[in-house]
Amino acid sequence: MFRLVLFGVLVSVPGGFCFSPNCVRENQFKFYGFPVEGCSKFLQQLCMPVYSGQFEVMGSPTIVKVKATTVLPTCAFYNVDTLEHIYGVKSKIKILAKGAFIKLPNLRSIDLSYNMITEVRDKVFQNVSTEKLDLSWNNILFVDPDAFKEVYNLRELDLSRNALMTIPIHQLPKSITTLNLAYNELTRVAINSLKFTNLTNVNLSNNRIQNVAISFFYPLDTFDLSNNELYDIDYVEISSVNTFRIGSNNFRLIPKYLENINANNINIYPNPWSCEVLPDLWRTMSSLNYRIETTGSGTQTMEICTNITTVGTFRQGDKSCVNDRQCPTNQVCKVGQCLDPCSSFCHQTSVCKAKNHQFRCACPKGTKSDPMDLTGSCNKVQCYVSSQCPLGKYCVQNRCKAIAGSTTVGPPSELPNFIPEIEVKPWWFEDIPYESPIKVFKLATLPPIPEFITIDPVILPKIELIGNSTT
């Protein structure tokens, strides 16, 4: 008997283990009064004041406008089946009480922008169906992982212009198509398509993001990472995206996994790109058929690369082309200009062939290019990596040598560097558990190498694999 009584208390007390507000009309009238206006669907310009939850005075209100109030209380809009839009812009709201939105099956939008809300707790939305939820321009610091657990059919979620340092992205409703988290204080984000089914527009611009991992196995429309603090992309794999933006970050070198973005348009400016890597960056993007998206107009001048002695600039607005077809057949269109790919993208020591807006840089016979040299220079060496050697030979000090067939080899100076590996899960592994590669960390200290070493031929493929991974 005592257990039953205790359970009943927990159910009825706000904040109990099983929170279920008692939203009968008497409680709405007695405890939960707050000023709103109710508007009819056919007389939207004619709105009448409604107090203490007595929405029946309007008959069947479809629109509610919240007037100035500090707290949006429990049972505020309980079971108003006809309600389609809740409009609470600039209403001075600070607190969303648990159960403020409960049993609203026909909602289409909730707009609570331009208020002073600081957190979104769980149970604020209970059994609510709405297509759009706007919580932008508040002071939100915290979003409970279960805050939107009982929000159904949500398509647009706007949490921009807040103070979020973290966000439970993978606890958001799977139905979301547009997610706006711009202008917050986020520093690390991992987002995975396994947690969503319809998300196609993601705005993470104007945060403080330094680490990002992205994995989407279906097409996206826009993914915006502009105006952050990125030096590189930790991991990205997107089946296709129309527009991908990384402008106004701290990129100097070519991002890892650039080939995994699969973008139609990519925004890479402005960034402090090194002028030494820019030709290789453009050459890579050209081979991937990425179109460079530029912004600005008129006489604005944009710095496209920097190094100690050189500053390259591009005057926005003075475009001579928008695609390759507007250039001579031996030129390509980049950042609005017709450029000679042989002089712009290929190293002077390489042989360049350009035809029909396509180009290829190749090293002359007897020379090789170092994959780690982003300038693409060609040098008279046999190899830089083992993959440049014939089958059965390995690259040792830029020469292809046959190690297989002999169990004893010469001094350790002629051996490939052998550094043992430790497989460590990267920071995004919990959010992207299936698609992510295992990051390889090198040991800081190595055991001493004997003067001569005997190698079992069985483990030679392991040596070659490690040699390739360091390239």
From TrEMBL:
Q: Which residues form the signal peptide?
A: 1-18
Extract the InterPro entries matched here.
Dev_Immune_Receptor, Leu-rich_rpt, Leu-rich_rpt_typical-subtyp, LRR_dom_sf
- GO cellular-component term (any): extracellular space
Membrane as a keyword of this entry, yes or no, is no
Q: Which PROSITE patterns match?
A: LRR
UniProt keywords, alphabetically: Leucine-rich repeat, Repeat, Signal
One matching Pfam family, short form?
A: LRR_8
* Database matches in SUPFAM superfamilies: L domain-like
Record-linked SMART domains = LRR_TYP
Q: What is this protein called?
A: Uncharacterized protein
Q: Give the species this sequence originates from.
A: Rhynchophorus ferrugineus (Red palm weevil)
Lineage of the source organism?
Eukaryota, Metazoa, Ecdysozoa, Arthropoda, Hexapoda
